[in-house]
Structures are given as structure tokens and as C-alpha cells.
Specification:
By secondary structure, the protein is an all-alpha fold. The protein contains six helices and no strands.
């Protein structure tokens, strides 16, 4: 049996990573969002009036943070492959998270809007890739 390395006929070896270095992190948007939220909450505690934190359910803004991951993934897939199923799937995931947050922020009635979750489920099935 041959290993995958046996089939590498490239005349140039793959450079080894330099010890003590780490690959560039792609978590900076999430980190920035958390820093901004912390700053806004601190400003509120210090007496600054922030109209968007006057909602009784302002905590739903934290749900929006979960949409950053799928949006980053969609952007990454778009840069690699263009618009395709992977991008659409990530956008559907982000859209579902954003919709859940908006239900809380806007006090939408689940009894009225629950069919959106059926639609999102269908969109997710239509855009999911075969993972076999």
C-alpha cells in the first residue's frame, strides 16, 4: 500500500511551519463584536443612555453574535468557489439565527411566524451538500 506522500511528485517540498508561530486567526470579527458589546454594556452601567439597550429583551443581541460564524464561512466559501451551495447553506444558517434574534427583539409572535422555520428547514435541505 502506498501512503498519500508517496504520490507527491512535486520537485519542491512543502515548507515546514516555523516553530513558535501560529496561523493567522480568523476570529477577529467575533472578538471585535464582543469588545464592542462589552464597551456598550459598560457605557450603560456608567450612565450613558443607549436607546437600543432600552429593550426589555436586549440580551437577544447576543444571539446575533452566533450569526457571525456562518456569515464568515459564507464569505470564505464565496472567495474560494464563488456563489454555490456552500455559500447558500451558510447564508441560510445565518438567516435562521438572525430571524430568531429578531423574533425576540421585535416581540414577534411565535404563533404567527412559526412557518418561517419550516421554510428555513426546506431552504437548508435544498442548499446542504452531500457529506458522504
Amino acid at each position: 500500500m502506498s501512503s498519500p506522500d508517496d504520490n507527491n511528485l512535486s520537485p519542491h517540498p512543502t515548507p515546514a511551519p516555523i516553530k513558535g508561530t501560529k496561523p493567522a486567526s480568523s476570529n477577529w470579527p467575533l472578538g471585535l463584536a464582543i469588545v464592542v458589546i462589552g464597551g456598550l454594556l459598560l457605557a450603560r452601567n456608567l450612565g450613558f443612555e443607549l436607546f437600543f439597550l432600552d429593550f426589555h429583551n436586549w440580551w437577544a443581541f447576543f444571539i446575533l453574535l452566533a450569526a457571525i460564524g456562518p456569515l464568515q464561512q459564507a464569505f470564505s466559501f464565496y472567495r474560494k468557489e464563488g456563489f454555490g451551495a456552500a455559500v447558500a447553506n451558510s447564508l441560510v444558517s445565518a438567516g435562521a439565527i438572525i430571524f430568531i434574534a429578531m423574533m425576540f427583539l421585535l416581540d414577534l409572535s411565535f404563533g404567527t411566524w412559526w412557518p418561517i422555520f419550516v421554510i428555513i428547514g426546506g431552504l437548508y435541505m435544498m442548499t446542504s451538500r452531500n457529506r458522504d
